Stage V sporulation protein K
Amino acid sequence: MDQPIRMKSNGQISVSLNSQKRKTVTKTLTDFQVAPKVIPPEHSALKEIEEELGALVGMDEMKRTIKEIYAWIYVNKKREEMGLKAKKQALHMMFKGNPGTGKTTVARLIGKLFQKMNVLTKGHLIEAERADLVGEYIGHTAQKTRDLVKKAHGGILFIDEAYSLGRGGEKDFGKEAIDTLVKHMEDKQHEFVLILAGYSREMDYFLSLNPGLHSRFPLVIDFPDYNIEQLMQIGAKMLVEREYSLSHEAEKKIKDHLIWVKSVLSPNHFSNGRYVRNIIEKSIRAQAMRLLLQNSYDRHELMTIRSNDLVFEEDG
């Protein structure tokens, strides 16, 4: 009977075999490892977007949803090639979440992915808000909205705080903008992608304003608030990109501040990654002033943000 496989202390595996000529086959663990899956060339678009998504902190559900959208589009194309029913998908989306949670960044990546998949001809992003759509007199709003849709042709029209279009009531021109958008979403649904973004509760109310809105957004993605560790990761990435680092005391001070500010501010008043970015940018300017006054410019000091450099929102 063959002897069992034994693991040696040096990480090798020894297999002893009973045969006419006994011999021992020795292999390392790496010889038994399964080769990593290689993404076929036709999925290079997904690989590129995955790499960019991987650089984003958190947002696991969103990353999974983007892969599902890719698979949905890709498989539908394969069905079409096989002569199966493959109705074109409506890809209009709704992003729900508080400020600073990465909605605009993700919208740009989606435009890039759709362009590489030939879903959109350009993949560019047109950002808009209420003032860009709502006019001052009857008919003006519809024209402004049509002009924006025209600019977004072949790409994405991203409307932040979209719920503000419905705040003025029946006589407000925002309703005209909504009605115009709904018409173009249907008539030109494969020529551009509309992404509406805003706070979760307000966006739910917004959908109730027009009976045709809800069914036209098959893709709804939630962007949750970042936790403290994720906010610290975001700050660290920003500092690395700018070739700065925090002293130990500064790192602790920022973390303590974030814990405090998240406990006293309501979710609608905390801007997540944007809040962290503001701290870093203000603190970099404060560090520059300190070094100027100290006339100290060695490499380590030029790269180090110290606790007395930190400027928080309530500090101005």
In short: The CA atoms of residues 129 and 159 lie 5 Å apart.
